[in-house]
Amino acid sequence: MSETATENVAERAARKVRDGVVSSTKMDKTIVVTITDRVRHARYNKFIVRHKRLYAHDETNDARVGDKVRVMETRPLSKNKRWRLIEIVERAR
User: Fold this and answer.
1) Distance from C-alpha of 11 to C-alpha of 24, rounded to nearest angstrom
2) What percent of the chain has pLDDT over 90?
């Protein structure tokens, strides 16, 4: 691999990648992805379900509500949009 290709791979590895479910597609070229994390409580050791909603850029308007998708962190694209759609992992049934 060339030197620039190695740098590009290292840069991409530093970006966060998350899997989630599309919860809204009402905006043009934007999807809302809900990320669900199960974290263990520090004192009680019970699992807590935490949800986070991310605004992601979908250039082709391809994703639909209920699809499982993978998003990657990117530069700010708008006031709230900081992620972009990488791939649709699984289509909604």
Assistant:
1) 29
2) 83
